Amino acid sequence: MSLDYDLISFESLLTEEERLLQKSVRSFVDATIKPNIAGWYEDAVFPLEIVPEMAKLGLLGMHLKGYGCAGRSAVEYGLAGAELEAGDSGLRTFVSVQGSLAMSAIYKHGSEEQKKEWLPQMAAGEAIGCFGLTEPTAGSDPSSMKTFARRDGDDWVINGAKRWIGLASVAKVAVIWAQTDDGVRGFVVPTDTPGFTATPIEPKLSMRASIQCDIELTDVRLPADALLPNAKGLRGPFECLNEARYGIIWGSMGAARDAWQVAVDYSKERLQFDKPLAGYQLTQEKLVNMALEINKGFLLALHLGRLKDAGQLQPHQISVGKLNNCREAIEIARECRSILGGNGITLDYSPLRHANNLESVRTYEGTDEVHTLVLGNKITGIPAFR
Protein backbone atom coordinates (compact mmCIF):
# COMPACT_ATOMS: atom_id res chain seq x y z
CA MET A 1 0.00 0.00 0.00
CA SER A 2 1.20 3.52 -0.76
CA LEU A 3 2.14 5.94 1.98
CA ASP A 4 1.58 8.99 -0.20
CA TYR A 5 -0.53 10.66 2.48
CA ASP A 6 2.70 12.11 3.94
CA LEU A 7 2.81 15.28 1.86
CA ILE A 8 4.91 17.20 4.38
CA SER A 9 7.65 14.69 5.27
CA PHE A 10 6.00 14.12 8.65
CA GLU A 11 8.24 11.19 9.47
CA SER A 12 11.29 13.47 9.20
CA LEU A 13 10.04 15.07 12.43
CA LEU A 14 10.46 11.78 14.28
CA THR A 15 13.57 10.44 15.94
CA GLU A 16 15.17 7.22 14.74
CA GLU A 17 13.90 5.44 17.85
CA GLU A 18 10.36 6.69 17.19
CA ARG A 19 10.50 5.51 13.58
CA LEU A 20 11.74 2.07 14.64
CA LEU A 21 8.88 1.71 17.11
CA GLN A 22 6.40 2.85 14.47
CA LYS A 23 7.78 0.34 11.99
CA SER A 24 7.64 -2.58 14.43
CA VAL A 25 4.01 -1.93 15.35
CA ARG A 26 3.07 -1.39 11.70
CA SER A 27 4.66 -4.73 10.83
CA PHE A 28 2.70 -6.44 13.62
CA VAL A 29 -0.54 -4.90 12.39
CA ASP A 30 0.15 -5.84 8.76
CA ALA A 31 1.05 -9.43 9.65
CA THR A 32 -1.37 -10.22 12.46
CA ILE A 33 -4.34 -7.86 12.45
CA LYS A 34 -5.13 -6.83 8.88
CA PRO A 35 -5.35 -10.37 7.44
CA ASN A 36 -7.82 -11.38 10.18
CA ILE A 37 -9.77 -8.29 11.17
CA ALA A 38 -12.67 -8.75 8.74
CA GLY A 39 -13.43 -12.14 10.26
CA TRP A 40 -13.03 -10.95 13.83
CA TYR A 41 -15.29 -7.98 13.11
CA GLU A 42 -17.95 -10.03 11.35
CA ASP A 43 -17.97 -12.68 14.08
CA ALA A 44 -17.77 -10.09 16.89
CA VAL A 45 -14.66 -11.72 18.33
CA PHE A 46 -11.94 -10.06 20.38
CA PRO A 47 -8.77 -12.05 19.59
CA LEU A 48 -7.34 -12.82 23.02
CA GLU A 49 -4.57 -14.80 21.35
CA ILE A 50 -2.84 -11.59 20.21
CA VAL A 51 -2.56 -10.17 23.75
CA PRO A 52 0.76 -11.96 24.48
CA GLU A 53 2.15 -10.64 21.18
CA MET A 54 1.17 -7.09 22.15
CA ALA A 55 2.85 -7.61 25.51
CA LYS A 56 6.07 -8.78 23.83
CA LEU A 57 6.08 -5.57 21.80
CA GLY A 58 5.84 -3.62 25.06
CA LEU A 59 2.47 -2.11 24.14
CA LEU A 60 0.69 -2.69 27.46
CA GLY A 61 1.20 0.24 29.79
CA MET A 62 3.98 1.25 27.43
CA HIS A 63 4.15 4.86 28.66
CA LEU A 64 4.56 3.83 32.31
CA LYS A 65 7.95 3.33 33.95
CA GLY A 66 8.99 0.38 36.08
CA TYR A 67 6.91 -2.63 37.16
CA GLY A 68 7.67 -4.40 33.89
CA CYS A 69 6.40 -1.51 31.73
CA ALA A 70 8.30 -0.28 28.69
CA GLY A 71 8.72 3.34 29.80
CA ARG A 72 8.18 4.74 26.30
CA SER A 73 7.52 8.40 25.54
CA ALA A 74 4.12 9.94 24.91
CA VAL A 75 4.98 10.35 21.23
CA GLU A 76 5.97 6.70 20.94
CA TYR A 77 2.74 5.68 22.63
CA GLY A 78 0.82 7.84 20.17
CA LEU A 79 2.61 6.43 17.15
CA ALA A 80 1.85 2.90 18.34
CA GLY A 81 -1.80 3.85 18.81
CA ALA A 82 -2.03 5.21 15.27
CA GLU A 83 -0.61 2.01 13.81
CA LEU A 84 -2.91 -0.18 15.92
CA GLU A 85 -5.99 1.78 14.92
CA ALA A 86 -4.99 1.55 11.28
CA GLY A 87 -5.73 -2.12 11.95
CA ASP A 88 -8.89 -1.58 13.98
CA SER A 89 -10.19 0.83 16.61
CA GLY A 90 -11.29 -2.03 18.83
CA LEU A 91 -7.77 -3.41 19.10
CA ARG A 92 -6.24 0.00 19.81
CA THR A 93 -8.95 0.42 22.43
CA PHE A 94 -7.73 -2.73 24.17
CA VAL A 95 -4.30 -1.18 24.60
CA SER A 96 -5.92 2.04 25.83
CA VAL A 97 -8.21 0.38 28.38
CA GLN A 98 -5.39 -1.82 29.64
CA GLY A 99 -2.66 0.80 29.79
CA SER A 100 -4.14 4.30 29.81
CA LEU A 101 -7.10 3.50 32.06
CA ALA A 102 -6.72 0.43 34.28
CA MET A 103 -2.92 0.38 34.61
CA SER A 104 -2.66 4.17 34.80
CA ALA A 105 -5.22 4.25 37.62
CA ILE A 106 -3.14 1.83 39.67
CA TYR A 107 0.13 3.49 38.66
CA LYS A 108 -1.02 7.03 39.44
CA HIS A 109 -3.25 6.42 42.44
CA GLY A 110 -2.45 3.00 43.86
CA SER A 111 -0.39 1.89 46.83
CA GLU A 112 3.03 0.34 46.29
CA GLU A 113 1.52 -3.04 47.16
CA GLN A 114 -1.21 -2.62 44.53
CA LYS A 115 1.35 -1.59 41.91
CA LYS A 116 3.62 -4.55 42.61
CA GLU A 117 0.72 -7.00 42.59
CA TRP A 118 -0.98 -5.92 39.39
CA LEU A 119 1.21 -3.86 37.06
CA PRO A 120 3.78 -6.57 36.16
CA GLN A 121 0.98 -9.04 35.42
CA MET A 122 -0.84 -6.50 33.27
CA ALA A 123 2.27 -5.39 31.38
CA ALA A 124 2.97 -9.05 30.54
CA GLY A 125 -0.58 -9.61 29.34
CA GLU A 126 -1.14 -12.18 32.08
CA ALA A 127 -3.92 -10.10 33.62
CA ILE A 128 -6.39 -7.96 31.68
CA GLY A 129 -7.85 -4.93 33.42
CA CYS A 130 -10.96 -2.81 33.01
CA PHE A 131 -12.01 0.64 34.20
CA GLY A 132 -15.51 1.06 35.62
CA LEU A 133 -16.64 4.68 35.56
CA THR A 134 -19.55 5.10 33.11
CA GLU A 135 -23.00 4.04 34.32
CA PRO A 136 -26.35 3.45 32.60
CA THR A 137 -27.45 6.95 33.60
CA ALA A 138 -24.08 8.64 34.10
CA GLY A 139 -22.05 9.08 30.92
CA SER A 140 -20.93 12.63 30.24
CA ASP A 141 -21.74 13.56 33.86
CA PRO A 142 -19.89 11.05 36.04
CA SER A 143 -20.58 13.15 39.14
CA SER A 144 -24.13 11.75 39.01
CA MET A 145 -22.93 8.14 39.44
CA LYS A 146 -25.09 6.03 41.72
CA THR A 147 -22.64 3.21 42.50
CA PHE A 148 -21.90 3.49 46.21
CA ALA A 149 -19.24 2.02 48.46
CA ARG A 150 -20.03 1.94 52.19
CA ARG A 151 -17.82 1.05 55.09
CA ASP A 152 -18.64 -2.11 57.03
CA GLY A 153 -16.09 -2.46 59.77
CA ASP A 154 -12.71 -2.52 58.04
CA ASP A 155 -14.27 -3.66 54.75
CA TRP A 156 -15.88 -1.84 51.87
CA VAL A 157 -19.15 -3.05 50.31
CA ILE A 158 -20.00 -1.82 46.82
CA ASN A 159 -23.41 -1.84 45.12
CA GLY A 160 -24.23 -0.39 41.73
CA ALA A 161 -23.99 -0.80 37.98
CA LYS A 162 -21.57 0.24 35.24
CA ARG A 163 -22.10 0.26 31.47
CA TRP A 164 -19.91 0.30 28.38
CA ILE A 165 -16.95 -1.05 30.30
CA GLY A 166 -14.30 -2.36 27.92
CA LEU A 167 -12.89 -5.85 28.53
CA ALA A 168 -14.84 -6.45 31.75
CA SER A 169 -15.92 -9.99 30.89
CA VAL A 170 -12.32 -11.11 30.23
CA ALA A 171 -10.66 -8.97 32.89
CA LYS A 172 -8.91 -10.31 35.95
CA VAL A 173 -9.03 -6.98 37.75
CA ALA A 174 -11.36 -3.98 37.61
CA VAL A 175 -10.81 -0.43 38.77
CA ILE A 176 -14.24 0.62 40.01
CA TRP A 177 -15.15 4.21 40.86
CA ALA A 178 -17.90 4.73 43.42
CA GLN A 179 -19.46 7.38 45.58
CA THR A 180 -18.61 7.15 49.27
CA ASP A 181 -19.40 9.23 52.33
CA ASP A 182 -16.06 10.89 51.57
CA GLY A 183 -16.65 11.63 47.88
CA VAL A 184 -15.75 9.60 44.76
CA ARG A 185 -13.10 6.94 45.39
CA GLY A 186 -11.50 4.21 43.33
CA PHE A 187 -11.20 0.52 44.22
CA VAL A 188 -9.12 -2.34 42.88
CA VAL A 189 -11.56 -5.22 42.46
CA PRO A 190 -10.50 -8.73 41.44
CA THR A 191 -13.25 -9.83 39.08
CA ASP A 192 -13.68 -13.19 40.82
CA THR A 193 -14.96 -11.35 43.89
CA PRO A 194 -18.48 -12.58 44.77
CA GLY A 195 -21.14 -10.17 43.55
CA PHE A 196 -19.16 -8.93 40.52
CA THR A 197 -20.88 -9.80 37.22
CA ALA A 198 -19.83 -8.64 33.75
CA THR A 199 -22.08 -9.24 30.72
CA PRO A 200 -21.00 -8.36 27.16
CA ILE A 201 -23.27 -5.89 25.37
CA GLU A 202 -24.59 -7.48 22.17
CA PRO A 203 -25.30 -7.05 19.32
CA LYS A 204 -23.30 -4.00 18.22
CA LEU A 205 -22.87 -2.13 14.95
CA SER A 206 -19.53 -0.67 16.02
CA MET A 207 -16.36 -1.93 17.76
CA ARG A 208 -17.37 -5.49 16.96
CA ALA A 209 -13.84 -6.85 17.39
CA SER A 210 -13.81 -5.49 20.92
CA ILE A 211 -15.65 -6.18 24.16
CA GLN A 212 -17.85 -3.74 26.05
CA CYS A 213 -19.89 -4.85 29.03
CA ASP A 214 -22.50 -4.12 31.63
CA ILE A 215 -21.22 -4.65 35.17
CA GLU A 216 -23.45 -5.43 38.13
CA LEU A 217 -21.99 -4.97 41.61
CA THR A 218 -24.09 -6.67 44.26
CA ASP A 219 -22.72 -6.50 47.82
CA VAL A 220 -19.16 -6.73 46.52
CA ARG A 221 -17.11 -6.96 49.71
CA LEU A 222 -13.52 -5.76 49.63
CA PRO A 223 -10.78 -5.39 52.22
CA ALA A 224 -9.65 -1.93 53.30
CA ASP A 225 -6.54 -2.14 51.14
CA ALA A 226 -8.62 -2.38 47.95
CA LEU A 227 -9.04 1.40 48.09
CA LEU A 228 -6.82 3.43 45.76
CA PRO A 229 -5.23 5.64 48.43
CA ASN A 230 -4.16 8.54 46.22
CA ALA A 231 -7.37 9.22 44.31
CA LYS A 232 -10.09 11.34 45.88
CA GLY A 233 -12.87 12.97 43.87
CA LEU A 234 -13.34 12.95 40.10
CA ARG A 235 -9.83 14.23 39.49
CA GLY A 236 -8.64 10.63 39.93
CA PRO A 237 -10.56 9.08 37.02
CA PHE A 238 -10.23 12.25 34.92
CA GLU A 239 -6.44 12.00 35.01
CA CYS A 240 -6.75 8.49 33.55
CA LEU A 241 -9.32 9.57 30.98
CA ASN A 242 -6.95 12.26 29.74
CA GLU A 243 -4.35 9.55 29.09
CA ALA A 244 -6.89 7.66 26.99
CA ARG A 245 -8.07 10.79 25.19
CA TYR A 246 -4.51 11.58 24.23
CA GLY A 247 -4.18 8.16 22.61
CA ILE A 248 -7.38 8.74 20.64
CA ILE A 249 -5.88 11.85 19.05
CA TRP A 250 -3.32 9.61 17.35
CA GLY A 251 -5.48 6.52 16.92
CA SER A 252 -8.27 8.25 15.03
CA MET A 253 -5.76 9.53 12.48
CA GLY A 254 -4.45 5.98 12.05
CA ALA A 255 -7.93 4.83 11.10
CA ALA A 256 -8.31 7.78 8.72
CA ARG A 257 -4.94 7.07 7.12
CA ASP A 258 -5.78 3.42 6.50
CA ALA A 259 -9.17 4.28 5.00
CA TRP A 260 -7.49 6.84 2.75
CA GLN A 261 -4.81 4.42 1.58
CA VAL A 262 -7.45 1.84 0.69
CA ALA A 263 -9.40 4.46 -1.26
CA VAL A 264 -6.28 5.62 -3.15
CA ASP A 265 -5.31 2.08 -4.13
CA TYR A 266 -8.86 1.21 -5.16
CA SER A 267 -9.29 4.37 -7.19
CA LYS A 268 -6.12 3.63 -9.17
CA GLU A 269 -7.35 0.17 -10.10
CA ARG A 270 -11.09 0.69 -10.57
CA LEU A 271 -11.93 1.56 -14.18
CA GLN A 272 -14.99 3.63 -15.04
CA PHE A 273 -15.62 5.04 -18.52
CA ASP A 274 -12.32 3.52 -19.63
CA LYS A 275 -10.02 5.16 -17.11
CA PRO A 276 -9.29 4.75 -13.40
CA LEU A 277 -11.35 6.63 -10.85
CA ALA A 278 -8.13 8.29 -9.66
CA GLY A 279 -7.91 10.01 -13.04
CA TYR A 280 -11.05 12.08 -12.45
CA GLN A 281 -10.89 15.56 -10.99
CA LEU A 282 -13.66 14.96 -8.46
CA THR A 283 -11.86 11.92 -7.06
CA GLN A 284 -8.54 13.74 -6.87
CA GLU A 285 -10.19 16.62 -5.03
CA LYS A 286 -11.55 14.18 -2.45
CA LEU A 287 -8.18 12.50 -2.01
CA VAL A 288 -6.35 15.82 -1.69
CA ASN A 289 -8.76 17.29 0.85
CA MET A 290 -8.58 14.16 2.97
CA ALA A 291 -4.80 14.00 2.77
CA LEU A 292 -4.56 17.59 3.99
CA GLU A 293 -6.67 16.78 7.05
CA ILE A 294 -4.66 13.64 7.80
CA ASN A 295 -1.41 15.58 7.63
CA LYS A 296 -2.79 18.34 9.86
CA GLY A 297 -4.19 15.78 12.27
CA PHE A 298 -0.85 14.02 12.66
CA LEU A 299 0.95 17.36 13.10
CA LEU A 300 -1.50 18.27 15.87
CA ALA A 301 -1.00 14.89 17.51
CA LEU A 302 2.78 15.22 17.37
CA HIS A 303 2.72 18.74 18.78
CA LEU A 304 0.53 17.63 21.68
CA GLY A 305 2.76 14.61 22.21
CA ARG A 306 5.86 16.77 22.43
CA LEU A 307 4.06 19.00 24.95
CA LYS A 308 3.08 15.93 26.96
CA ASP A 309 6.64 14.63 27.01
CA ALA A 310 7.76 18.06 28.23
CA GLY A 311 5.14 18.02 31.01
CA GLN A 312 3.35 21.01 29.49
CA LEU A 313 0.18 19.51 28.01
CA GLN A 314 -3.00 21.15 29.31
CA PRO A 315 -6.40 19.41 29.57
CA HIS A 316 -8.09 21.78 27.12
CA GLN A 317 -5.40 20.99 24.55
CA ILE A 318 -6.37 17.32 24.75
CA SER A 319 -9.92 18.42 23.95
CA VAL A 320 -8.62 20.27 20.87
CA GLY A 321 -7.00 17.09 19.59
CA LYS A 322 -9.80 14.69 20.47
CA LEU A 323 -12.54 16.91 19.02
CA ASN A 324 -10.72 17.80 15.81
CA ASN A 325 -9.15 14.47 14.94
CA CYS A 326 -12.20 12.31 15.67
CA ARG A 327 -14.45 14.67 13.73
CA GLU A 328 -12.13 14.69 10.73
CA ALA A 329 -11.39 10.96 10.85
CA ILE A 330 -15.01 9.90 10.66
CA GLU A 331 -15.68 12.23 7.72
CA ILE A 332 -12.61 10.89 5.95
CA ALA A 333 -13.68 7.27 6.46
CA ARG A 334 -17.14 8.04 5.09
CA GLU A 335 -15.74 9.88 2.09
CA CYS A 336 -13.40 6.99 1.37
CA ARG A 337 -16.36 4.61 1.39
CA SER A 338 -18.02 6.77 -1.25
CA ILE A 339 -15.00 6.33 -3.55
CA LEU A 340 -15.37 2.56 -3.20
CA GLY A 341 -19.04 2.72 -4.22
CA GLY A 342 -21.09 -0.39 -3.50
CA ASN A 343 -17.98 -2.47 -2.87
CA GLY A 344 -17.27 -0.21 0.09
CA ILE A 345 -20.07 -1.67 2.18
CA THR A 346 -18.36 -5.07 2.30
CA LEU A 347 -15.75 -6.18 4.81
CA ASP A 348 -13.32 -6.65 1.93
CA TYR A 349 -12.45 -2.99 2.47
CA SER A 350 -11.77 -1.07 5.67
CA PRO A 351 -13.32 2.44 5.33
CA LEU A 352 -16.89 1.67 6.44
CA ARG A 353 -15.61 -0.56 9.26
CA HIS A 354 -13.42 2.34 10.39
CA ALA A 355 -16.36 4.75 10.10
CA ASN A 356 -18.56 2.48 12.20
CA ASN A 357 -15.84 2.10 14.83
CA LEU A 358 -15.20 5.82 14.89
CA GLU A 359 -18.82 6.39 15.90
CA SER A 360 -17.79 4.82 19.21
CA VAL A 361 -14.39 6.51 19.39
CA ARG A 362 -16.08 9.86 18.78
CA THR A 363 -18.48 9.15 21.65
CA TYR A 364 -16.32 7.66 24.38
CA GLU A 365 -13.85 9.63 26.51
CA GLY A 366 -15.98 12.73 25.93
CA THR A 367 -18.45 13.47 23.15
CA ASP A 368 -17.99 16.27 20.62
CA GLU A 369 -20.44 18.31 22.66
CA VAL A 370 -18.51 17.92 25.92
CA HIS A 371 -15.15 18.79 24.35
CA THR A 372 -16.77 21.77 22.60
CA LEU A 373 -17.97 23.03 25.97
CA VAL A 374 -14.54 22.47 27.51
CA LEU A 375 -13.06 24.67 24.81
CA GLY A 376 -15.90 27.17 25.01
CA ASN A 377 -15.20 27.53 28.72
CA LYS A 378 -11.49 28.02 27.98
CA ILE A 379 -12.20 30.71 25.38
CA THR A 380 -14.93 32.63 27.22
CA GLY A 381 -14.32 31.80 30.87
CA ILE A 382 -18.00 30.87 31.16
CA PRO A 383 -18.91 27.24 31.88
CA ALA A 384 -21.96 26.26 29.84
CA PHE A 385 -22.37 22.63 30.85
CA ARG A 386 -25.72 23.24 32.55
TrEMBL record:
Q: Which reaction does it catalyse?
A: glutaryl-CoA + oxidized [electron-transfer flavoprotein] + 2 H(+) = (2E)-butenoyl-CoA + reduced [electron-transfer flavoprotein] + CO2
The record's annotation in Pfam families points to:
Acyl-CoA_dh_1, Acyl-CoA_dh_M, Acyl-CoA_dh_N
Quote the EC number: 1.3.8.6
The answer to whether UniProt assigns keyword Repeat to this entry is no
- Cite the Gene3D superfamilies for this sequence: Acyl-CoA dehydrogenase/oxidase, N-terminal domain, Butyryl-CoA Dehydrogenase, subunit A, domain 2, Butyryl-CoA Dehydrogenase, subunit A, domain 3
Signal peptide (from-to): none
Pathway field:
Amino-acid metabolism; tryptophan metabolism; Amino-acid metabolism; lysine degradation
InterPro entries given in the database record: Acyl-CoA_DH_CS (IPR006089), Acyl-CoA_Oxase/DH_mid-dom (IPR006091), Acyl-CoA_Oxase/DH_mid-dom_sf (IPR046373), AcylCo_DH-like_C (IPR036250), AcylCo_DH/oxidase_C (IPR009075), AcylCoA_DH/ox_N (IPR013786), AcylCoA_DH/ox_N_sf (IPR037069), AcylCoA_DH/oxidase_NM_dom_sf (IPR009100)
Residues covered by the Acyl-CoA oxidase/dehydrogenase middle domain: 130-220
Record's keyword terms, sorted: FAD, Flavoprotein, Oxidoreductase, Transit peptide
| Similarity field | Belongs to the acyl-CoA dehydrogenase family.
Record protein name field = glutaryl-CoA dehydrogenase (ETF)
